[in-house]
């Protein structure tokens, strides 16, 4: 299920909206399917949102085309790594990852 109307403001917004929707439908768990690259951050945010509703989520990352083993050698991969860590650091002081 993809909620895109209106589009979510952030991964956290998406996680909270999905948790609300699935809880309203009686679900107790869900699979989070996203690219392997940002699956760690997405899983942390979805796990927190779902656990606040008494639900669980399991991450099922799909392969990514970036060579993450050598991310520093590729400008696109390097940018994505830096952006991903910046997003993770953004959420840490907010306490939303747990």
In short:
45% of the residues lie in helices and 14% in strands. The protein is of the alpha+beta class. A two-stranded parallel sheet has the order 1-2.
What does this molecule look like?
- The structure is a single chain.
- This protein has 98 residues and is an alpha+beta fold.
- The protein has one domain.
- It has three helices and two strands; from the N terminus they run H-E-H-E-H.
- A two-stranded parallel sheet has the order 1-2.
- Helix 2 links the parallel strand 1 (29-35) and strand 2 (56-62).
- Helix 1 crosses helix 2.
- The chain is elongated, with a radius of gyration of 14 Å.
- The protein starts with 10 loop residues before the first helix and ends in a 7-residue tail after the last helix.
Helix count, DSSP H or I runs of 4 or more residues = 3
Number of domain units = 1
- State the end-to-end distance: 24 Å
Mean pLDDT: 88
Q: Please state how the strands of the largest beta sheet are arranged side by side.
A: 1-2
Chain-wise SSE layout:
Blueprint: H1 11-24, E1 29-35, H2 39-51, E2 56-62, H3 75-91
Parallel strand pairs: 1-2
Helix pairs in contact: 1-2
């Amino acid at each position: 299920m993809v909620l895109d109307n209106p589009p979510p403001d952030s991964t956290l917004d998406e996680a909270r909206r999905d948790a609300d929707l699935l809880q309203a439908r009686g679900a107790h768990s869900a699979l989070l399917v996203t690219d392997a690259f940002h699956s760690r951050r997405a899983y942390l945010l979805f796990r927190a949102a779902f656990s606040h509703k008494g639900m669980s989520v399991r991450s099922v990352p799909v392969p990514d085309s970036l060579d993450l083993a050598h991310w520093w050698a590729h400008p696109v991969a390097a940018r994505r790594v830096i952006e991903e860590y910046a997003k993770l650091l953004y959420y840490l002081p907010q306490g939303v990852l747990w």
